[in-house]
Amino acid sequence: MSLMHRSLHIAGRQVTNIVVMTAVIMLVCVGLAYWFSNAIAERKDEIAAWATEKTGYPIQIGEAGLYWFDLFPKLMVTDISVMQAEPDIGELFTAEELYIGVDLIASLQQRALVVDTARISGLQLGIKRSADGDISLIGLQGKSVDQKFDDTQIDWAEQIRSWRGIELLSAQIQFDDQMQPQFSGLYEVNELALLQGKQSTLIGDIQLPHHLGQQLSFTVDAMLTSSGISNWRVEQLDARQLQLATIFQNQQMQDVSVTRGRADVSVGIGSNLNKQWQGQIQLLDVALENLSHPDRGSVTINSLSGEFNWQGDGTAWQLAAEPIQLTIDDDSWPQSTLNLQFSETDGWFAETSFVRLSDLTALALLSDKAPALLTQYQPAGDIRDIQLSLNSNNELQSAKMIVDEFASQPVDQVPGVTGLSMEVEWEPASAHALISSRNLTMYAPTWLPEAIYFDMAEANLDWNTAETNWQMQLTDLNIWNNDMTLRGEVGLEHQSNTTFADIDLQMLDVAIANWLSYVPRSILDPDYLKWAEKAYTGGQIETGSLKLKGNLAEFPFTGENSENEFEATLNVINVGLDYGKGWPVLENISGQVLSSGNKLDILPKAGRIAGFDFVNVSAEINNIYAGKPVLDLTGLLSGNTEDALNFLQASPLSSRYGDITDWVKAEGKSNIALNLKIPLLDPNATDADGHVSFETSQLTVTAMPDMPIQNINGQLFFSNDGVNAEAITATFLDRPMKIDVLPGTESTLVTAKGEISSQQLAQLWQGKMPGFVKGTTQYQADVEVSEKSLGEFDTDIRVISELAGLTIDAPEPLGKTAADKRLLDIKLSKDDEQRSLLQLNYADIASAVWLIQDSARGEITIGIPEPELPASGIRLRGRLNELSISEWMQWQQTWLADSITEQNFDNWPAVDIEMAVDNLRFNQWVLNDVQTKAFQRNQIWQMDIQSRQLRGDIRWPVESDSLPTLHFDFVDLQLPASNNQSNGRKKFKSELWPSFQLNIDSLTVDGMQLGRVQARALQQGNSWLLQSASMQSAVLQAELDGVWQKNDLADSSQLNLKLTSNDLAGLFEDLGYQAAIHSNQVGVTGQFSWPDEPLNLSMANLQGNLNLQIDDGQLVDVEPGAAGRIFGLMSFAAIPRRLALDFSDFFGKGFSFREISGDFQFANGQAVTDNLNMR
């Protein structure tokens, strides 16, 4: 056998021996393990007792055994319950499984059980932290005694170091935190492992309570020594969906609370050895509020994310963050960076690429503890490239930044701004700013009343300070907006409480009306400021220059100090100057304005005042900046007459001329020579004199636009004492007139004399003057202006004329001939109660008084002197001997018919009428001793009338669907005599009567008693219908109807009659006849017509027929001649009252009849019958 074979054989046999030995050892180990496992399982109660003895807590276990997961066996215990010690009333905690790895070698060496590894799963544990911070276990059954940990007997650090690994899986820990209740809840531990090697590693994965967040996972490396933990390092830390409102529930940041928000935090590197932290943070939907002041609202951090790197310790550290993404209140910041450095010896240094100040202000306004710099100024805008440094005392040492669209509120003397953009470099004793702003607005309420706006503002600003002194210099100044363009330099230096200025400005296109908006109020004299606020009404400085050098406290530099200098030269156009209250404004001034010291000289090339052009005018204002400013204006003004009146009206002199321009319009050419000296702060103390020249001018009263006063020539002189004029000539309605103005001690009288014709009066009445006035007459008009009290004037107007030459074609008592003289006196004045009254007297025949302010209040009297103003409404009173209603109705129809039809009755005032007339005539009818009272309320007339012939009342709606009603207690009329004299009297045509209802309790006509009368009539189109009428007495029943028709050619009337009686003898007696015939059956019917209105009935124009029927009667004993009266009665009209028939022998003893009947025809003034029968 070769050596190789022998070697292989020996080796193979050794391997075989080793394998056999190994197998035997393994079988022995397996046997031992099985034996040990069974032994342990059988002795679980002893294990529980041993554990109870070692821990001091009763322990119960379900099963126990030994398991081999690797080369070393592990003790497994299931269903573990640790009970409370005293009393044994519940479980402290439980676990489903416990695996303990035993270090056999160490256990053999130390002759005691040495644990190598441990793994617990299914742990359920309750932990409580008291308000004092003590930790205790809570029984799972929630029963009574809390068990506090007593770790004084255990060296935990050494115990943990002795273990190779500890692992906790699928644990549930119920944590009750009474110190910070928001952290209470169920914590689910997915994994918590401590691994021992060269260093210790702690790995965790924990599901947080829902109200705290979602998950917390970490990996931490550290060195465990007998003295504790050293050289730890966070390899990984992740916290997801942390609920910030819950976590910071009882914590406030400067009294601001987190009410909503989520956070994700991830730390990649963290070490106490390297003093460094790196990681990422993301905040979402974080809401911040001040719970003590909910009215302040909230700030929402929509999102914040970034990566950070912190390195250092408490004495010196550095924080860098980038890129930072931030959105606050839905407004996103640009991506930015942040670098903070701190050193206890060197102080602070901060650098960031971007800050939005408005968001910082919003956060600061939530808190009462925020820096006053933020809460008072409330800055807004964006700042870029910021660099700040502070010393160890937190004092600012330097600042550098770029500011975009900066805004802040004004505070005390510091103005607020918006739209400020600049580059700033600041140090404690100096500062420099390069200002380049667009749309800049400045708010300085302590300096200026309103904000000022600039489209552009550019300047270099240098500021230097030393103790209480400071110096400010603006160079390369360039400002413009709609009001101005300003260029130049401004220097201010403050020394020893005195401020010196060195200003050199060039101005272009300056709006003069707004100049005061840009000048601090404090440097102006209060009196001048009061005047200047309203003085400059318009205009522009085309070009100008201003130089001011000296002590500002001494402005306007009127003293002898030669170091003070002020000079302004302005070239102006279209300037308006409202120099004094009540005076007309100086307008369209173009020229040059020079100012130095305390004086302003105006050298106009052109200008206007109250419509007058400057001819040769100069003006100066002394004490314009300090003291009492006074305007001296002298010159000649050229314009027209209307402008002259406007000038007087627009000046304080208007108080001496009333409201003349309100009722007078002027045309033509006029000039004014004017000298004014006006204290601008007291225009009432003005001295003024001059005159107005009228050259072929014209004045028109607004109430009579078609009747101007023309060709006015003369001069009207005025001064502070009043006005006067003599023999100003003019024409009125093409007729000459003369005007005088006479000043008095208490009034000024303007008198105009002339003549006027009826045609011109028609123009005065705007073409509506009726034609019953004709001719020409003289008149005098006086206008008296009197000053009742200071600044209060009354104007009285009086026009008088004897009306000689005028004919008034009207019935008595108003009518007159041209030769008659009747004085007409019209006054317009105020009474003791300062009411404007119109008074009129016409030859003491008719008078009137009327309230001008109320056209529905006045009184007219006829035949009664001294009318009185009623308390309300309109009143008419009269006392006349004779009055013909027919004549006045005919006059009205002739001259005033159109004006009556145009009346609108909707808004009639209350009207009262009282009239007394001895003889009141209507056509051929006469009423004597008439007394009537009438009033109108709510468009309804009520009238009471009484005379010898009648007594009654009338109710007459002006416009209504209801009929007027006439009710008379009695009516006793005498028919007009039908003789030649009455037939020849002039008859008047009437309009159709209106609709009405008539009731007469007792009607008597010519002594004939007709009884009670009722009637209803309607006016319809061109007809007046007597729809129904009745007469009724004890012996008479009658019914009537008819119609009155009117057209342009003629009138026509028709009447139908039906009469019955059951006592003919009684009827004869009521009608004034002898009772010659007795009958109980009488009937009369008739139809009549005549070509005229109803009241113009006469036998001459009567046409118609009448039927008579008398049955079963008797002619009684009568006196001779009675038969004639009987036939006269039956004829009803024109048959003579005495027939030449003698039936005395036939009727002497009486006679009975069966029937009397017949028909009568009326025509041509006769009644004819051919069938009168008596049987």
Mind explaining what this structure looks like?
- The structure is a single chain.
- The protein is mainly β.
- It has six domains: 1-42; 46-251, no CATH class; 252-409, no CATH class; 410-513, no CATH class; 636-668 and 678-857, no CATH class; 963-1174, no CATH class.
- Helices cover 13% and strands 55% of the residues.
- It has 16 helices and 63 strands.
- The chain has a 63-stranded mixed sheet that branches.
- The longest helix is centred in the N-terminal third of the chain and has 40 residues, at 3-42.
- The radius of gyration is 63 Å and the shape is elongated.
- Mean pLDDT is 80; it is low at 14-35, 141-145, 980-985 and 1121-1148.
Mean pLDDT: 80
N→C terminal distance: 207 Å
- How many alpha or pi helices? 16
Strand content: over 45%
Number of strands: 63
Which word captures the global form? Answer: elongated
